[in-house]
Amino acid sequence: MPQKNTHKIISLRTFMTIAICLIVTVILLFSGLFYYNKTAGILMENYERSFTSQLTQVNQKISDQIAAVDSVAPLFLSDTRLLDILESPDSSHVTAEQKLAIERQMSSMYYRTSIASHNFTDSIFIISKDSSLFHIYTSGSFAPYEEQNAALMDSLDRSRTHLMCRVLPSDEHSIYFIRNLFNSNTGNYMGTFFIKLNREKWMQYCVEGLDPSWFICLYNQEMTLVSNDAMNAQGAELAEHFTAEPSSSVLFREVMLGGESYFAASEQLPGPGLTSAVVAPKNLLLRDLNNTLKTYLLFLVLTVFIALAAAIIISQMITSPVKRMIYHINRISDGTSLALPPMKMYHEFEVWADSFNRMLRQLDTYYTDNFQKQLLLKNAEIRALQSQINPHFLFNVLNTIAWKAQIINNEEIYQMVISLGELLKANTLSKETDFIELEKEMEYVKFYIYLQQRRFEDRIDCVIRIPEELMDCKVPCFCIQPLVENAIVHGLEPKKGKGKLIIQIVPTDSQTPEMEIAIIDNGVGFAEIPDIRSISSSADDSHTHIGLKNLDKRLELLFGEGARLKIESIPDLCTTISFRLPISPAPGIISQK
Q: Nearest CA to 181 among 92, 103, 101, 79?
């Protein structure tokens, strides 16, 4: 009795259920980690964009205010009385009345500036080279200033020409913007301009609109300013960290300040050499990320379990019609059936069955039609071969005509037939090689010009200028004849009176050995220089137009963009079509067919 096979092959339904369970389990384990990393990266990019945006807004405000501050000194110097005093060798002769009048004018000018509206300017000073002082108060505070002025003047480099920014240890509530003044004629130092700003008001204006948990830091080699006084220590550390790696572009990075992590973006400002930075605690930003992840992970777990249950049910419902369809497809492949029966259990399977049956019918039609097309194509090729005329037959006929013309002493007809035969022979030979010698190319061109001169009864004069040393150079076959044909057909033929054609080939002065081939005529020319690449076939003169386009494309493929055709034209006076080729007796790109 044969042994019973107890091994059971797993069913598709069981396999789908197990596979879906495993896949969902793996997704559940790794999706959280992946999403955390991905979301963290996206949020970091968003934070960087947000920091950069905030930094741009802050820098725009600071730059606008610095520009407004820097414009005050030239405005004051527009007062000729003040300028004369500063430029004079000795300003000690200024009377109290003159000083009072100048200071009143300075005050009037100040209140016409944009910085006056923000009310964070405390006072403005101008100290001449011999220590004469012009001073106005702008905020109503009349604090003494002699000690601060002395400290600023002692630390000042009087050779610096750009706007400077200072903070005095003895006056931590103020910011000083300073500019040395120079004589516009001699360039000599003539005084110093100071503008004193209220630090708290100015910094609050700069951080207006910034998130309260963020702060800004302004620093250079001489000072460090922080918008939040509680963050002065962190600001000093930040200045040391970014000063070690100066950059004119925006720098965004994570830094350790006071033992805590911060995100910071910094950028150098033009003008007084300040660098601004926008700083925010990392833990506040990551708290948003963690809250988002908790909500997402909970939603992800619920969604995966629901999807798992639905997938198990759907897999059981799908396998039954699939089995049925596989059975009928196997019958079609065996030849026992010609089409699938209707699958009415689900609409999608019914559409699938209909599409499969249509595909079978289309394949049958396609193979039948393709067989017929191959037969028609083969017949067309046979008819084309039968209609071809042997070129040697044409040459023999032309030679016979030339022989008869010579017998009756008709030299003109003899020369025309010989020229035509040479052109036909050249056209036949051009299909066998890509390059020929320039001397041979010019022989074909001369045959063509001779025929055209006979046609127009010597109404066209032709001048050929070619150095003898270039005659051995290789050129592309039929690269000159299309240009000559274009000049005659489109330039000289429509012209009234006698026309002139010049074929000029000369070596150029470029670094690499090149020659320039130019076809010049005095025909009607072009009212508008055409784009050769956009030329398309048309009923009128399509042969010469397409010939130019083909030649232009052939030159570009052989020698590159620099060899393309160039057209210059003055209507009814002169038209030139030219191109450049490398001078070489045997180009390496020649290909024999």
A: 79
Q: How far apart are CA 130 and CA 126, in angstroms?
A: 11
Which of 220, 208, 215, 216 has its CA nearest to residue 176? 220
Structure tokens at 256: 């350790």
Beta bridge mates, 570? 574
Beta strand residue intervals within 379-488, DSSP E:
435-437, 460-465, 474-476
- Tens digits of per-residue pLDDT, 12-57? 667 776 777 677 767 766 776 776 677 777 777 777 788 788 778 8
DSSP string, 14-75: HHHHHHHHHHHHHHHHHHHHHHHHHHHHHHHHHHHHHHHHHHHHHHHHHHHHHHHHHTHHHH
pTM, two decimal places? 0.45
Q: Are 505 and 572 in contact (CB under 8 A)?
A: no
Q: Quick one: angle between helices 391-407 and 411-429, nearest 10?
A: 160
pLDDT in tens, 461-505: 899 999 998 898 989 888 898 899 888 888 888 888 888 999 999
Euclidean distance between CA atoms 548 and 535, whole angstroms = 9
Query: How confident is the model over 159-198, as pLDDT tens digits?
Result: 888 888 888 887 878 888 888 899 888 888 888 998 888 8
CATH 3.30.565.10 at 462-582, yes or no: yes
Residue 168 in 3-state DSSP? strand
Instruction: Name every residue whose Cβ is closer than 8 Å to that of residue 403 and which is 6 or more positions away in sequence.
Output: none
DSSP state of 430: T
* H or E stretch at 545: helix 542-559
Q: Residue holding tokens 């009385």?
A: 81
Query: Would you list the domain boundaries of the chain?
Result: 53-283, 462-582
